[in-house]
Design brief:
With 212 residues, this protein is α+β, with helices and mostly antiparallel strands. The chain has 5 helices and 10 strands, in the order ββαααβββββααβββ. The strands form 2 sheets. Strands 3, 4, 5, 6, 7, 8, 9 and 10 form an 8-stranded antiparallel β-sheet that branches. A two-stranded antiparallel sheet has the order 1-2. The longest helix is centred in the N-terminal third of the chain and has 7 residues. The protein starts with a strand and ends in a 9-residue tail after the last strand. 43% of the residues are buried. It binds a DNA duplex (13 and 13 nucleotides) through β5, β6 and α5.
Length: 212
DNA sequence: GATTGGATCGCCT
DNA sequence: GGCGATCCAATCG
């Protein structure tokens, strides 16, 4: 475990995050399934004007690109999904059901429009700020679901296209060890095509995942 | 130009 | 477990 992290107190020293290294672009520039798996156990951090919030990634989904019928890029490039067609390591944020935002990270090689959806976090720091943004729900529900974590982390559509290496939202290796037998693999949630492709990954035993 | 359905959530029963 | 909220873009005609 790296310095600056106090899991017992559920706090992180802010200056630790400012100095620590985010995951590099090369992390995201790999095949999407690998990135989705390896993002488990990493920390997602948002440096916002209101304060810093961070959570441990416990659930992700891979959206592989134009050949994946459930991926937005399968039906061509639009203004909405344009970020996915750009380089890896950038935030692809979109509005769903007319009222919720979902946060993705672009992946894979240049020219392949793929991304990983972050579906759930275990809150680590800035928990009071998260609760205020979410209007005080149970701590367990702060980041349990893609739209919930977006709200708790204070993410807006203005961050669409921002770098997750140099921008306000970043991912860090915090030395949290994920043993391979803790990783579960299951079909993706809430989609109507390719419903049996096992591209959802989550940490077994976590109380913070959206679906078991 | 109109219709339809969606990578969801919160509230209801 | 069901349903309403509410916007966007793809798919019809």
């Amino acid at each position: 475990m790296k310095p600056g992290l106090d899991f017992a107190q559920n706090t992180i020293k802010d200056d630790y995050w400012a100095r620590a290294s985010p995951l590099p672009y090369s992390f995201y520039r790999r095949d999407t399934t690998t990135v989705a798996q390896e993002l488990l156990g990493k920390a997602m951090v948002h440096f916002s004007a209101e304060g810093i919030t961070a959570g441990l990634v416990v659930e992700t989904e891979a959206y592989l690109g134009p050949h994946d019928p459930a991926c937005h890029s399968a039906r061509g490039r639009t203004e909405r999904n344009a970020v996915m067609f750009g380089p890896a390591g950038h935030a692809y944020i979109y509005l769903i059901y007319g009222m919720h935002l979902c946060f993705n990270v672009t992946t894979d090689r240049d020219g392949l429009a793929a991304a990983v959806l972050v579906r759930a976090l275990e809150p680590l720091t800035g928990i009071e700020l998260m609760a205020r943004r979410r209007r005080c729900p149970a701590p367990r529900d702060l980041c349990r679901g893609p739209a919930r974590l977006v709200q708790a982390m204070g993410i807006t559509i203005a961050l669409n296209g921002a770098s997750v290496v140099e921008g306000p939202v970043r991912f860090y290796d915090i030395g949290y060890e994920v043993h391979p037998n803790r990783v579960r693999r299951a079909p993706r949630v809430g989609i109507s095509r390719a419903t049996d492709w096992p591209l959802r990954f989550y940490l077994a035993g976590s109380a913070y995942v959206s679906h078991k």
